């Protein structure tokens, strides 16, 4: 059977790993296309993971958990916008400060509320269930088709389908909507956009709100779908991997999504390689295997950073001309 091959498991794992990065990368895309560097993706992801897991556990309703995660991520995004846009603070420092604060605060609050070493209890039935597509049983025994339809395309949670449906929606929004035109204008030349009557600060705040909502799905996916609980620093650098995917994709939705799938593939490959003995080499140490996604990140940055063209006004506070 096709599913007996490791490649089949890697491809399915890639589909399941990618949404964390896709949500975060699309969030960063909105923020950075408007001219705001979003280093706080990691912090927003971690905060929404903690709040989503906590509310889902208390209410035993994963959708209420996701809604609560959206709320806290929006609050952080607006705070980040106030510092970076209204007060014209250093965007890099603001993002790093949010990441550090959320990392410590989420652990302390988890320990205070649940007393389980900085993690939440297992969610159990409060996790999102997999969606079984119609006709799955009818094709289950057909070679390749049963695996392709039942496991690669089907058998995922609603957030997985939302992540992949989001890609063309974001592409259309950025390149074919009025808001997308204004977003790109303030990210490339905010003074020209201001002269044309576009409210630069308002547009950037709207972009930060979009980033907050999308990044919350990434944290909720980590806690409610993948792990089934919240654990300290469970985002594990995925926010920075999402930023790397942005660089790889040259701040374009479709190419950025391809970068997310690439990182998802190598993360799945890392899991498959654990415990495997190679002829003449033996078992590869787990620590070396865990390095794979991050080594790929360095290679991608080294190979594509010089070729990528960021929005011209990114990281530059807007000061209205008198």
UniProtKB/TrEMBL annotation:
Pfam families, sorted: BPD_transp_2
Membrane topology according to the record: Multi-pass membrane protein
Superkingdom of this protein's organism: Bacteria
Residues annotated as transmembrane: 6-27, 63-85, 92-114, 153-174, 205-224, 254-271, 291-310
Keyword Transmembrane: yes
GO cellular component: plasma membrane
Any GO molecular function: transmembrane transporter activity
InterPro entries noted in UniProt: ABC_transp_permease
Subcellular location: Cell membrane
Keywords, alphabetical: Cell membrane, Membrane, Transmembrane, Transmembrane helix
Name the record gives this protein: ABC transporter permease
Organism: Undibacterium terreum
